[in-house]
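Let us practice reading a record.
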Amino acid sequence: MLDLMGFGQGEAGKSADAVAAPPPRPKIGLALGGGAARGFAHIGIMRTLLANGIVPDIVVGTSIGAVVGGSYAAGHLDTFEAWARSLQPRSVFGYLDIRLNGSGLIGGDKLGAQLDATFGKVRIEELPLKYAAVATEVKTGHEIWMTRGRLVDAMRASYALPGIFSPILVGHRWLVDGALVNPVPVSAARALGAEIVIACNVSTDITGHGTIISAEDTPDETEQAITAPPVEEKRGLSKFFSIEKTMKREFFGAPGRPGISTVMVDAFNIMQDRITRARLAGDPPDVLISPRVGRIGWFDFHRAEECITHGARAAERTIESIQEAISFLTPTASQSPGTGQDDEAS
């Protein structure tokens, strides 16, 4: 029995397979940032990484990053990509169940139903790799890492943009978009055991760099004031049939006047940009992938193909750096386990 277990053998009797086994590579973590429709670039990034043999052991996502990362972790990235590429402006409107009551302009039930149809009752703890979705607790502002429970609930909570989507109740907490506290969750990936963190920031070029304008000229009183065009009053049943159309016009705005969504998203962009730069400066990733998708609007979900292409190109530019980082942290076959020193030197 001892011989079968390998005890009592000399150095020459050790298993040839054990000696020839390749050294373990470092654990790779992928931190996918938020950015609504721009987050479709994560699909192109992941496709490129996988094609080059860079397979993540840990995936952490915020907002749309949680959705793309969860789709990959659950083995449904193909399904999610096909759905994303199929979106057209009219079909995007179909997912906007705009409502006048509640705590968000969009109920999110239609989009939630689409996610339910794809992922069903899949639970995070059943996934084949470590996964976490980042969200924010409404009352406390706590950063919540969801590593257990239904995958769909975690996704919906992570992308629940305040004021746009209604908060999601997970357990006893009301949760909203994780980008409020951690837009590109490098820290979460490291905490889950990643030795190399690849961060994907799809909001790099959405704003300037905080330029300060000391003064701004005030228009003269004689200048024509900007006024909204008069709205024709609806009569009879036509008044009720035009409510949804009116709501969507107010939501997206009109020429020369931003809508509710534009104002909220622009404000959110500014805040997210400041938080992202501060957090990445304090906890930088080993490699940062930043696709140039700033010209794609948050609700331009019909431009998925363009986003995916930008993501793939950005990832291709970083492959060499990622492979160098992996090689640097991978022990060579001549190194003694646990010492990092060559056998000859010891």
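A brief commentary: Residues 1-18, 221-229, 336-346 have pLDDT under 50 and may be disordered.
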